[in-house]
Amino acid sequence: MPVISTFFGIVIRMFFADHPPPHFHAEYQGEKATFAFDGELLAGNISSKRARRLIREWALLHRFELVLNWKNIERGQRLNRIEPLD
After folding, report:
1. Looking at the DSSP assignment, which residues form a beta bridge with residue 44?
2. What is the pLDDT of residue 16?
């Protein structure tokens, strides 16, 4: 599963041939969750409120790039890295 971004100990990935709805996977301190492109938690759990807030902030800032990567997944094309939060 390609890593598309990392920041503050959070790893963001997207799967090739993944199922709808469009989403990304996040991991923080061994906990894993799936998020919509607006940062809404879809499945799993990351217990840190700070990490969830940072993931949501990042997703909202990079929503367009996430959509482009999802389109790349649908086309079988390479995923692009997305800038981390500063």
Report:
1. 33
2. 84
